[in-house]
Amino acid sequence: MHYILKNIPAKQLTEGISGRYLHTQNSTMGLINVDKGAVLPEHAHIHEQITHMISGKLEMVINGKIQLLETGMVTVIPSNVLHSARALTDCVIVDTFFPVREDYK
User: Which of 17, 91, 96, 103 has the least C-beta neighbours within 10 A?
Assistant: First the structure.
């Protein structure tokens, strides 16, 4: 199956952060746009998350440790681990979640 991401309606996560999400039987993939200065508050979820930086610079705090993610970098956030993010520049990110993010449907 093929999808055109621009045809998937965007979901606003918080001010300055929106994504277009594709759901399979077992996982969710999102193409996320983050405005410079946008903040994703600290949270945790049951989903394992893989974050791939397509462009930009993002400061993440994962399990209390600060990480600077830049273009081409990938980080893995285990299930139920507290994390937050702050965009240092405009960012484009691909997030993959397992299992499916039912709350993003």
Answer: 103
